[in-house]
């Protein structure tokens, strides 16, 4: 029997035989459709996430809305608690239908929380999110995936470790820290370039 499947990796539909699809890691859902576990996982991730306050799973009822209510937190605080699905911070905008939660740098924080991880086997930063924020000035940066885990911030010029986010780089076998949320801090130190003066 031939079935039509959507391949998320290459973003296209294709005809395959049910038997060959099952052999390559596909599954038959209860509705009869064929699905890969990676696609099912992404679909669940779009509907379920952790509340940033109580860490319980919350279901997003409308996939088009970013404003989500956590019932346990609302009940505990005796007022409605809503948070942004994108940046995982408390909803500040009075318009619940808006795609802007009112938090500064919402889209950038959502990018930090939702970007993929580095999968290149030989890379020193394998397992890290693809995008990090400089721990000094919060400018977003990427790693070239070659060489040591250090990255030079294009804004403040400080070096930081892409794995543990320590400033001035890291020369030890450090642990990968979790994903970041932007604080919106405006004050940071900028590294001054030292110019060597040659005696005349």
How do the helices and strands follow one another from N- to C-terminus?
EEHEEHEEEHEHEEEE
- Range of helix content: 10-25%
Structural class: alpha+beta
Largest sheet: 2 strands, antiparallel
Describe the model.
With 200 residues, this protein is an alpha+beta fold. The protein folds into 3 domains: 2-45, no CATH class; 51-103, no CATH class; 116-190, no CATH class. It is built from 4 helices and 12 strands, in the order ββαββαβββαβαββββ. It has helices at 18-23, 37-47, 71-77, 106-114, and strands at 2-7, 12-17, 26-28, 34-36, 48-50, 57-59, 67-69, 82-84, 132-133, 140-141, 150-152, 159-161. It has a two-stranded antiparallel sheet with strand order 1-2. The chain starts with a strand and ends in a 39-residue tail after the last strand. The model has no long low-confidence stretch (mean pLDDT 81).
Please give a handful of descriptors for the protein shown:
3 domains; two-stranded antiparallel ribbon; 4 helices; 12 strands
Task: Explain the layout of strands and helices.
Layout: E1 2-7, E2 12-17, H1 18-23, E3 26-28, E4 34-36, H2 37-47, E5 48-50, E6 57-59, E7 67-69, H3 71-77, E8 82-84, H4 106-114, E9 132-133, E10 140-141, E11 150-152, E12 159-161
Antiparallel strand pairs: 1-2, 3-4, 5-6, 7-8, 9-10, 11-12
